[in-house]
Amino acid sequence: MKIRIVLASAVVAGAFSLTAIAISGVLSKEPVPPAIAEATLWTPDPLSMPQIADYDVTPPAAFHADNASPMRPLPLLQSVFAETALPEIEPPLITWSREIASGETLDAVLANAGIAAPARAEIALALGAEYDLRRLRPGHEITVISKVDGNPSRVELAVDDGVRIETVFGQELVTRVLEPDPEMVTFAGEAVIESSVFAALDKAGIPARFAVDMAQMLGGTVDFRRELSGGETMRILWREARDGNERIGQPELAFATLDLGETVYEIVWPDDGSGEATIYVDGEVLRVFAQPVEGARLSSVFGRRTHPVYGNVRMHTGVDFAAARGTPVKATAPGRVSFIGRRGGYGRVVEIAHGSDTLTRYAHLSEVPDTLEQGQRVLAGDMIGRVGATGTATGPNLHYEVLVDGRPTDPLSDDRLAEAAEREADDTAALERLAEARSLLAERLTSEFVQTTTERL
């Protein structure tokens, strides 16, 4: 086909050429030379049609009809459906958390979280079944985890010592108490007194609350105002319950030394929870003393003061230790229970006689153990009640008095209790405890020094 088109094109082109030449010959005034005229008469020979060769094409044997495989219809593809249902996507949860402020109730905090009144009542009943809600205080924390529709999914109340009370909403309310499993870790530090014991401990990174314990233990032996002129050294060994990096509860003193230059005072606290401490002077037992409330803040001292309730100036016949309601109160020296009951503004009281002339009084108690009876013998460190606010009190605290021949004396300076405790002291065991405490303090101070030096390098 292409060849035919080419031939036709050539013939047409030649015809046009001849026509053009003829016209130019007619119009030209000059005669055409014979050679040119002869050349214009030439035409190419016609092209012959191409011949297509005949080939005997034989298909392969595989395609012969005799050998062909029979054709079968292809099976239809079957759809496979998964029997397992897609996982349900849980709606997101909203977390709200806040500490309880002074004067707030649980209901007020839950209302602030946007929980409806019926749910608040359920939560209060559930939490109250595991924890006395009257013991709520500032610093306790409420966490509410709610669904997007505002209904609570879980409510958690974090109280003292890392304890959490959790209420989970489901087909029914489930409440449980979650207690931490802390590890007891021992620390050591050294402080140089410049202005006060409190400031020295705080500057050295040692819990400053230990200043109260030192004043309570040595208040009747060392005059901190007159005998501390500056430059005195204190070394402290203490224990902390740790849950990871979080401290659980309050730190506990284990050993303390106060070097005044000419005299060295040392105090060893046992790790049995009794709170009974042994005081040494230059390596010899001076006395045994148990503080009434461990780690409490000394909120009011002995002497004249403006009464916090009545507003007038009157004699304060004891010392006050501010502590959380329910904190254990312990006997400060061995003796015999002489009174259990109520005494006017003192509220609920326990009194212990130490010999014939000395008596200790523990007031504003919230409760007294059922096992404690009048006439019963107690030892230093025995629990005799719990901190409360009964009687005339502005808040939970222990009012502690020492009376000699019926007259109040300063509990931090009287030696009568020391004499009562000293009669029951075991000097051999006490000296062994002192040697162990000194060794542990030296070991921990060395370890702290090496660690600090390594961190600086």
UniProtKB/TrEMBL annotation:
Is Cell membrane one of the keywords UniProt gives this record? no
Give start-end of the signal peptide: 1-22
Which gene is the coding source of this polypeptide chain?
Answer: mepM_3
Tell me where in this chain the M23ase beta-sheet core domain is found: 314-411
Q: Name one Pfam family in it.
A: Peptidase_M23
Question: This chain belongs to which protein, by name?
Answer: Murein DD-endopeptidase MepM
Query: What is its cofactor?
Result: Zn(2+)
Q: Is Protease among the key words of this record?
A: yes
Q: What class of enzyme is it?
A: hydrolase
Known EC number(s)? Answer: 3.4.24.-
Gene3D superfamilies in the record: 3.10.450.350, Glucose Permease (Domain IIA) (2.70.70.10)
Q: Which SUPFAM superfamilies match?
A: Duplicated hybrid motif
Q: Which GO terms describe its biological process?
A: proteolysis
Assigned keywords, A-Z? Hydrolase, Metal-binding, Metalloprotease, Protease, Signal, Zinc
Residues spanning the membrane: none
Any one GO MF annotation of this record:
metalloendopeptidase activity
